[in-house]
Specification:
Chain lengths: 108, 303
């Protein structure tokens, strides 16, 4: 492998990406890698994967959908976690009435 | 007895430095000690490709009386790893004789150089997370890791037919490690027994769901709100780290090199004289390549 050309390609592509992180779509690889898995990577790593033929850059639509899914997954996860941590306070009947401003029923 | 010449002494100095370099390097590696390391003391150049044979899968045949054996022609495939990284760390020692007289001083100079190389190797290995695409990534970005996530990572590796005998590792960042040891079932004596005590008292997670858990400062993190932490669960044969010897400098050019080799790992130490600073210059360098060998043997664990 011509390492000079290899690293030059990576540097050029990294500059073209013009961002810190990029979303890449995996390509099928000989080691058993599957096609179509979206992953967020640093620009340098994205460039490396593209040059090595292990991934391609995600389209704007793919990237938007991926980031939306990521946000949604987090929102769902936070919601589930919040329901697990639901606070329950045991209040006596008299305290409850007092908080509502209702008089206690007369004793019989 | 032959006379001790200055050339002998110069060689001895490099040998002494090299002997200290490798144990320090291996001691600073986490990922580097968990992956499949391939080292041969043969000379190679940057850009060379190394073929790593991948063991084929055979099928057991039920032998009946009078039956003949069934010949299988397994296709031995190769994983190709390019030696595309030549990492080096160089330092100068103004008074080399003083350093040799005080070995602690040598460690003082050597350690930062070796740590720098170890960090480079660790970062490169952990940067392979994005290549693990055979198994669907588990976990959710920006949320704490849960027992269910660890469970699904282990299930994914089991379904990918990782042999039961092969150790499995989970390498996570510091925050994720902290979350793991705060999971009640893993950190209390009544649920985790002795391991729970260790998590509580020593702060070590040890083993969870068949994963040996390690933490690394070089786990990749991407994005913002939420930040995705790319932890990695894998078996040893998921990743290959190939290291090869680099050639000696030309004789008579003033530079002297020695190799330090230990347990499938090797570095070269070069000593030369830096005329601008009038100091002895040492370079520790290593030629390596890292790549995924078996994609199914690793899974991205996001948190």
């Amino acid at each position: 492998m011509d390492l000079k050309a290899y690293y030059q390609k990576i540097r050029d592509l990294e500059q073209d990406l013009k961002r810190t992180y990029a979303v890449v779509v995996s390509l099928e690889t000989a080691d058993g890698g599957a096609e179509g898995v979206l992953t967020e990577v640093a620009a340098r790593l994205a460039a490396k994967m593209i040059v090595e033929g292990r991934a391609r850059r995600a389209t704007k639509e793919e990237e938007k959908e991926f980031l939306e899914q990521k946000l949604e997954a987090r929102r769902v996860s936070d919601h589930v976690e919040a329901t697990k941590r639901m606070q329950i306070t045991v209040v006596s009947e008299s305290d409850l009435r007092a908080s509502k401003g209702v008089k206690a029923p007369p004793k019989q | 007895m032959p006379a001790i010449t200055s050339a002998n002494l110069a060689s001895a100095i490099v040998k002494l430095v090299a002997a200290d370099a490798l144990p320090a390097l291996v001691g600073n590696l986490v990922m580097g000690n968990l992956v499949n390391r391939d080292y041969e003391p043969v000379l190679a150049q940057a850009g060379d490709t190394v073929n790593i044979p991948i063991a084929p899968t055979l099928v057991a045949h039920n032998m009946a009386e009078g039956d003949a054996v069934q010949l299988q022609n397994p296709n031995v495939t190769n994983a190709q790893i390019v030696l595309n990284t030549h990492a080096e760390a160089t330092f100068q020692i103004p008074d080399v004789t003083k350093v040799l007289a005080v070995p602690d001083l040598l460690q003082l100079y050597m350690n930062p150089a070796v740590v720098a190389i170890a960090q480079k190797i660790e970062t490169d290995l952990l940067g392979l997370y994005a290549s693990f695409t055979s198994n669907t990534p588990v976990g959710t970005a920006g949320t704490a890791i849960t027992e269910a996530v660890v469970d699904s990572a282990e299930t994914a590796l089991f379904q990918a037919k990782v042999p039961a005998s092969e150790p499995k590792y989970l390498v996570v960042d510091a925050a994720t490690y902290s979350q793991l040891r705060q999971i009640d079932r893993f950190s209390e004596f009544q649920t985790a027994g002795e391991a729970g005590l260790r998590a509580l008292v020593d702060g070590t997670v040890g083993k969870i769901k068949d994963f040996f858990v390690f933490r690394s400062q070089f786990i990749s993190k991407t994005g913002s709100s939420p930040i995705t932490t790319h932890n990695l669960a894998f078996a040893k044969n998921a990743i290959g780290l190939v290291v090869r010897r680099m050639p000696q400098p030309l004789p008579g050019t003033g530079a002297i090199a020695e190799y330090a080799e230990l347990g499938n790992f090797g570095v070269r130490v070069i000593m030369s004289y830096e005329p601008n600073t009038l100091a002895q210059q040492f370079t520790v360098d290593v030629l390596y390549g890292a790549a995924v060998i078996r994609n199914g043997f690793g899974v991205q664990v996001n948190s």
